[in-house]
From TrEMBL:
Cellular compartments annotated: Membrane
GO process annotations (BP): visual perception
Protein's name according to its UniProt entry: CNGB3 protein
Protein keywords: cGMP, cGMP-binding, Ion channel, Ion transport, Ligand-gated ion channel, Membrane, Nucleotide-binding, Sensory transduction, Transmembrane, Transmembrane helix, Transport, Vision
Disordered: annotated span: 35-75, 624-699
Record PROSITE patterns: CNMP_BINDING_1, CNMP_BINDING_2, CNMP_BINDING_3
Primary localization class, coarse: membrane
Segments traversing the membrane: 118-138, 200-219, 249-273, 317-338
Naturally occurring in which organism (per UniProt): Centropus unirufus
Domain Cyclic nucleotide-binding per the UniProt entry, residue ranges: 424-528
Length: 699
């Protein structure tokens, strides 16, 4: 037998076929995206943004000579960048000298409020100013400046004068100033402004070289008294330093103490001058010249200004006038300094006093209304932790004093990194997120506090700023499902839940102290009024997240029966239609059926219900029902009960060709319930459930 040749059919190119299939797949995906676009206009177009039109042709490359020059410059720069220093056995890299010069190079204009280098320079000038203020009176009155050590005093005086000159000629003409709300940084304008100020005049007077008079009057420190007129720089340094210190009140206390010590220092110098004028040891009131002259005079000045008393009485008129002036000056100066010290300490502890006042008022309120001790302890714990963690009870009170722009800048630095992690807000308008940052509220939860409970309507979103929270679940609600740490977000679905609310599905408890940011639904809706595009995007994302989280969790795996029971499979569940028909369990359901049957008809009428499974049941009275029957019926024989069935019923049972329901009857039964299954005469309708209730006739 000859075999027929197999026809090869139409031959195709495999590469072309693959390309065509890829094109078809892409076209189908494109069509699907456009359908979704028509159904939901929030989605963006699948087409990519058009590329920019090509610009003009690039200019021709530079000549070879220019390239050579650039290469030479690069070679010159590289050795400076890769500058290493050999020291002993190690070799380390250090920045080149040019970087140091750039850092030390003075800018054309100086911002006196933010430039730390300017503050450092003011500190150097302040040290020079304090040297002059403390040692010029000391050298003028006490005999500490001698010909043997005059060169050291003069050397330090020259260094201080150089600092004064540099500040006058270099730094102060570069300081910016405000004019009509504008910051002026022009060189000419800054010089004119400084030269027209009172500060410039005092600075010029403070550097006048009266020291040249040393050659005529000797080395008298009183000729340098004009150096103490540079007090404006000293007070400016105090203001700038307090602005950058974290705890400025500490410096204020030190400065006030320095004022007191300086006044005592001046008073000690005056007392030695008066004693020298009267003659050392000439009277009981003056200094007797024994011991350390400065310490003895300083001790006298302290007792006089603080009005301790116990000093020798003045003898001469000069001593009496000097002592009276000293007492008046001491009362005025000392009381002023004590008042200033009180203000400084009061300002430093104002927050602590406010915290104590709030806590005392709260404790008094709880005691008045007999609040339980457990609740009072938790309130005290909340006050203490909130104050210790953030230094204030409410952060919003501090921010309310600032302009909105500054509030936004602080909120961005503190909270933007946390809010930006929320998937719900990704892709939203940045300005909308900025507005939302200003509405976040910070709340502290104590250990064991419920952040939200299962079944509550969720109206807030929570962002963990600090601490941890635990999500509880399980049958008893105590099983820890997950632990959320700082930066985690939960409850965001509740903000945009459809239908007006979304119930919490688990309990969330604070594990330890937890500081949370809260954003409620009402606040978010007020913000979204001004951002309709972001509102549409959030609603779409909320639907997607609700669908993802709304899927039922997979249940526990079904255990397979062991042994021979596994051959028969699991027992089918009772049909719901049959459960609804019975309406109850045991004798209650049977009693309802019998009562319904008596009301409808005394004849037997089968009830038909279409179901897809075969069922065969028989309900009888329980032994408890049989005991409540009359004793006469209990004495009847079983045969009589069996033969009491009418012949019609027997004939009906014989006619049925389908499986007969098994009925177990007792002699006490008056009714019989028969349930059977029979195929439906109409094809495709399944089977028919028959329920028959028959009464037994007495002989």
């Amino acid at each position: 037998s000859t075999q027929k040749p197999i026809s090869s059919g139409f031959q195709t190119n495999e590469y072309a076929d693959a390309q065509l299939q890829e094109i078809v797949r892409k076209m189908r995906e494109r069509a699907t995206v456009y359908k979704e676009k028509l159904n939901d206009p929030v989605l963006s177009s699948p087409e990519g943004s058009p590329e920019a039109s090509p610009s003009k042709k690039k200019p021709p490359p530079p000549p070879k000579e220019e390239k050579k020059e650039e290469k030479k410059e690069e070679l010159e720069i590289k050795p400076e960048e890769d500058h290493y220093c050999d020291m002993l056995c190690c070799k380390f890299k250090k920045p080149p000298l040019k970087k140091y010069k750039e850092y030390l190079q003075l800018p054309e204009s100086i911002d006196s409020y933010t430039d730390r280098r300017y503050v450092a320079w003011l500190m150097l000038v302040t040290v020079a100013y304090n040297w002059n203020c403390w040692f010029i009176p000391l050298r003028f009155v006490f005999p500490y400046q001698t010909p043997s050590n005059i060169k050291y005093w003069v050397a330090i005086d020259v260094i201080c004068d150089i600092c004064y000159l540099c500040d006058l000629l270099i730094f102060q003409p570069r300081v910016q100033f405000l004019k009509g709300g504008d910051i002026i940084s022009d060189k000419v304008e800054m010089k004119k402004f400084y030269h027209s100020s009172v500060k410039f005049r005092l600075d010029v007077i403070s550097v006048l070289p009266f020291d040249v008079l040393y050659f005529f009057f000797g080395f008298n420190p009183a000729l340098r008294a004009n150096r103490m007129l540079k007090h404006n720089t000293f007070f400016e340094f105090n203001d700038r330093l307090e602005a950058i210190l974290d705890k400025a009140y500490i410096y204020r206390v030190i400065r006030t103490t320095g004022y007191l010590l300086f006044i005592l220092h001046v008073n000690a110098c005056l007392y030695y001058w008066a004693s020298d004028y009267e003659g050392l040891g000439s009277t009981r009131w003056v200094y007797d010249g024994e011991g350390n002259m400065y310490l003895r005079c300083y001790y006298w000045a302290v007792r006089t200004l603080i009005t301790i008393g116990g000093l020798p009485e003045p003898q001469t008129l000069f001593e009496i006038i000097f002592q009276l002036l000293n007492f008046f000056l001491g009362v005025f100066v000392f009381s002023s300094l004590i008042g200033q010290m009180r203000d400084v300490i009061g300002a430093a502890t104002a927050g602590q006093n406010y915290y104590r006042s709030c806590m005392d008022n709260t404790v008094s309120y709880m005691n008045t209304y007999s609040i339980p001790r457990l609740v009072q302890n938790r309130v005290r714990t909340w006050y203490e932790y909130t104050w210790d963690s953030q230094g204030m009870l409410d952060e919003s009170e501090l921010l309310e004093q600032m302009p909105v722009k500054m509030q936004l800048a602080i909120a961005i630095d503190v909270n933007f990194a946390i809010v930006n992690k929320v998937d719900l807000f990704k892709g939203c308008d940045t300005q909308m997120i900025y507005d939302m940052l200003l509405r976040l509220k910070s709340i502290v939860y104590l250990p064991g506090d419920f952040v939200c409970k299962k079944g509550e309507i969720g109206r807030e979103m929570y962002i963990i700023k600090q601490g941890e929270v635990q999500v509880l679940g399980g049958p008893d609600g105590t099983k820890v499902l997950v632990t959320l740490k700082a930066g985690a977000v939960f409850g965001e679905i509740s903000l945009l839940a459809a239908g007006g609310g979304n119930r919490r599905t688990a309990n969330v408890v604070a594990h330890g102290f937890a500081n949370l940011f809260i954003l409620d639904k009402k606040t978010l809706n007020e913000i979204l009024v001004h951002y309709p595009d972001s509102e549409k995007l959030l609603k779409k994302k909320a639907k997607v997240l609700l669908k993802a989280k709304g899927k039922p969790a997979p249940g526990p795996p079904v255990q397979q029966p062991r042994g021979l029971a596994g051959l028969f499979g699991q027992k089918p569940e009772t049909p719901k239609m049959f459960k609804a028909l019975l309406g109850g369990k045991g004798k209650e359901g049977l009693a309802r059926l019998l009562q319904l049957k008596r009301q409808q008809d005394t004849q037997v009428t089968p009830q038909k219900i279409d179901i897809g499974k075969h069922l065969h049941f028989c309900f009888q009275e329980t032994p408890a029902e049989a005991q409540n029957k009359p004793e006469q019926e209990e004495k009847k024989p079983v045969e009589a009960a069996a033969s009491s069935a009418p012949p019609e019923q027997k004939s009906e049972q014989n006619v049925d060709t389908k499986p007969k329901p098994s009925t177990i009857q007792r002699e006490t039964s008056k009714e019989s319930l028969i349930i059977s299954m029979s195929p439906s005469p109409t094809a495709g309708e399944g089977e028919i459930l028959k329920v028959e209730v028959k009464e037994k006739k007495q002989k």
